[in-house]
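FW: tagging you since you asked about this chain on Friday. Here's the raw sequence from the shared folder, copied in full. Didn't touch anything.
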Amino acid sequence: MGTALIAVIGTLLGSVATHFFQRQTAERAAALTRAEQLRQERISTYSAFAGALVDYRRAQNDRWHRRAEAPDSADARNSRLDSYAQRSAARQALIRVQLVCAGRQVVQLALSAFDFVHCMHEATDASERARRSVEADNALARFIEAAAPSVR
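HL: got it, structure written out here
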């Protein structure tokens, strides 16, 4: 009778221990899966933001050039409208960055990069436009540098 009782207790302890370790393993696997999904989402979001900002910067440069060449032309009007569409796409990508990014500094750098691009068309001459374009490019590079460690 004592041997049977010890066998039952041993079996119960084994079952409890197995359940405990399996639960821990499952929780770790779920946490790793969530972390990888977030990493992939950040890669996608940061890449989309960078691409949208590059397109917006191009549109802002084009807008400035078309206005400088012929302010009342159809090309100037079309490039202005294109810059509005690119701004909207960049703003949407910026909102995604704000949603998935945990670091306040990275979000601030994304906002700063957007602001640099946003003001490019206000340049008063070609050298100021070129300077603003370089500043926007540098701001985007700072964002990418700060965001990269969170996706490695």
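FW: The chain has one domain: 42-151.
HL: agreed, and The first helix runs from residue 2 to 69.
FW: great, closing this out.
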